[in-house]
Structure formats: structure tokens, C-alpha cells
Amino acid sequence: MAVEAQGGQKTAGIKPATGKLGIMVVGMGAVATTLIAGVEAVRRGLAKPIGSLTQMGTIRLGKRTDGNSPLIKDFVPLASLDDIVFTGWDIFDDNVYEAAAHAKVLDHDHLQQIRPFLEAIQPMPAVFDQHYVKRLNGTRVKKGKHKCDLAQQVIADIQNFQKTVDRVVVLWAGSTEIYLEPTEVHQSIAAFEKGMVDNDPSIAPSQIYAYAALKCGVPFANGAPNLTVDLPCMVELSRQNSAPITGKDFKTGQTFMKTVLAPAFKARMLGVSGWYSTNILGNRDGEVLDDPESFKTKEESKLGVLDYILQPELYPDLYKDIYHKVRINYYPPRGDNKEGWDNIDIFGWLGYPMQIKVDFLCRDSILAAPIALDLVLFLDLAKRTPQLANIGIQEWLSFYWKSPQTAPGLYPEHDLFIQLMKLKNTLRHIMGEDLITHLGLEYYD
């Protein structure tokens, strides 16, 4: 069944979002429980889905003078929030209500209104190895003779859930694993499958989940900076099974601000000599990142943004010698309410120095939850769209990531506003609408 575009033009066979969409979340911590509780609160009319582009954003069609800007959710065939079903895995015994209460992101009154719904979601035992996340010690962990056995158990979990819903998306909302680099085991599906049997140490739990999802033809989103789907074997599996993948590490607080401010400096040809960023947070993410090996994974994700936006090789007078430093400090009293400080040393006309200081007192999971929602809805749309499902990497979703994934040899686009234009033009394209270039000369003919 084809979906009809606004202008009456038939699109290329996008399947409708009928039936139930199952969201399987790896790691029922602060982000996951805030997402699940938030979706249920919105469904019951208790709150608004603020921060969600799919739920509150509009998209302009045609000329500015046409006055045609429908809601995105009314323009493209996205799954309805009423059709979402949640399940997932965790290394602790808590149901989702208990996990949400422990995370202390949402207040007691908010949780009490939806407590029975949250208590009914009991996570399945998870694939976990403390070698990859040293600050956690799981109590509900799958056992197997090798990593291939563990992957088969996850595949069985996905297949059993698929029997109860119409479509599935898998979302990693687990902790940041230690820093890994690609090895020979990641170069092909065959090598990866042999590596799992051999218990290759380069294969982390997140990779096992990604393999299982993609093997089942299910889209996969990685909310942490782990080396997970950004591997040749996963791209091959994604294309082979029409299971869309995209970037990694939700772009929430400090990096979100960098992708807003850095493009502004470059647009005005203002130089940057230094950018110092430090964070304090006290949730489980902060505890995990207190381990130097996990922090290195996050650091690599956060450091790359400025180089790609500022392009020092094109603007050596402005950005060649920039000093960029990132720090994350575990501070338990702050809980999920992260604070990010940025000191930016810039220079302008004739080289005269100036400074900008940003203090972002944000709520990490409050910013991440709507991103996670948008990603699973857009990945489900991509799976149902022939023009997108078979290409593997969904670069048009770069808007949501600290580390967007691209085709090999192609540098990622980090400018938030270019990313948003790419996202909306992709939606226009698959719906048979004209792309918007913002040229605007036709108004002056």
C-alpha cells in the first residue's frame, strides 16, 4: 500500500504504520525509564511531549507564501504513541517503576500516576561482562558457553517479542563501555560470527545486541558512544537484512550547545583559540564514566565535533591551533541533573580576544528521552520506506548524535542546522514533495 503525499503524488511504497511497534530497550536506567514513563504520561494526557521533533515539530511544504506547515507526525506515516509497546533487558532485578524511582529523574507524584503500567514491565536478563563496564556488577545476567550462544539467546528474545507486535526497534540505553577499536574480527559477518564462538575480547555486549537485532532485520540505535554498529560487519548485516542503523551517543547537553555555537563562530569567521568543557553528574552514567577506560570512549565522541564543524584545514588562521579539552567528573549529589561548563576563547577583527562562558544546568535524561523516542519512530519509518531500508546507514538522522555515522570515507556533518535541513528534506523527498533550498529568488521575480 502506498502512502499519498500532501500534493497527491504517490510515494515509493512506504508501508503504513499499522499495528503495534515494539521498542526493546537495552538497559532500564535513567534514560530508558524516563522515556517509557514519559510516553505513558503523554498517552494519558498528563504531560506534553516537549523536546520531541516527531510529536511537536512542523515541516514547511512549498513556498513561504503557501502557509503549509503541517506537523511532522501528520505528514509522514509515523507510529502513534498509542501503538508503542515496551520491553527490554537489564542487569538488575528492578521492574521499570522501581528502576525509575531509583533513578530519581521523575518526581514521586508523576510516577505514582502511572505506577501500575511501569510495574508491569519486567526486564529480561541481560548480556553483561564487567570487563567492558567496570563500575557495574550485574545480578541478572545471561549465561552461555560463548558469545555466540549469548547472541542466540538475544535473538530468541527478539523473535519471541516479534510474535506479540507488528514491528520492532532495538535501542541501546545502557552504560558506556570501555574504549575499543575495530579489529579483524569486525571486518565481515563471517569473521564476527567466528569471533563470537572464539569469545574474542574485541566483541563487547553492545555488539552482541546489535548483531542480534540486525540478524532479525530489526533497526538498531546506540545511545552511548560504544563501538557497536560503526563496524564493517554491522553495515554489511544492516544492508543485507534491510535493518536501518544510524549514529551513536545521544546529543543532549554540552555537545548539543557546541553544535549550535561552533557553526555560528564559523559563519561569522570568528576565530577560536581554546574551548574548555567540564561536566559534573551523579547518576549511573557518571559513575561508569568515572572509570578512565569508559571515559575515553565518551571523550572520543565529544572531542571530534569541533574539528568537523570548524574545518581547521580550510581555515588555518581561525582554527588550526585550537586547544580543546573535555572533562567529566562524577559528583553523586547532583544525580541526573548534570551541569556543563564551557569556557570559549574566541578572537575577532585584527585578532583581538574575547570570551564566552556557558553554564548549562541540564537534566540529562529529560533531554535524552525525546531524542530516543524520535529515533525509534524515525528508524521504524526508515524500515518501512524502500528508499531508506536497504541503504543501511541513515545519515539523515545525524541531528540526534554526537557521532553521526556515514558511508566509509565520508566526513560527518555536525552543524545542527544543516543536520535539521537534511532530516526535513529527507522526509520531503520520501513523501514526493519538493526539497526546500531556501534560495528564495522566485519571490523577487
TrEMBL record:
<feature type="transmembrane region" description="Helical">
    <location>
        <begin position="21"/>
        <end position="39"/>
    </location>
</feature>
<dbReference type="Pfam" id="PF07994">
    <property type="entry name" value="NAD_binding_5"/>
</dbReference>
<dbReference type="InterPro" id="IPR002587">
    <property type="entry name" value="Myo-inos-1-P_Synthase"/>
</dbReference>
<dbReference type="Pfam" id="PF01658">
    <property type="entry name" value="Inos-1-P_synth"/>
</dbReference>
<feature type="domain" description="Myo-inositol-1-phosphate synthase GAPDH-like">
    <location>
        <begin position="253"/>
        <end position="365"/>
    </location>
</feature>
<keyword id="KW-0812">Transmembrane</keyword>
<dbReference type="InterPro" id="IPR036291">
    <property type="entry name" value="NAD(P)-bd_dom_sf"/>
</dbReference>
<comment type="similarity">
    <text>Belongs to the myo-inositol 1-phosphate synthase family.</text>
</comment>
<keyword id="KW-1133">Transmembrane helix</keyword>
<keyword id="KW-0472">Membrane</keyword>
<dbReference type="InterPro" id="IPR013021">
    <property type="entry name" value="Myo-inos-1-P_Synthase_GAPDH"/>
</dbReference>
<protein>
    <submittedName>
        <fullName>Inositol-3-phosphate synthase</fullName>
    </submittedName>
</protein>
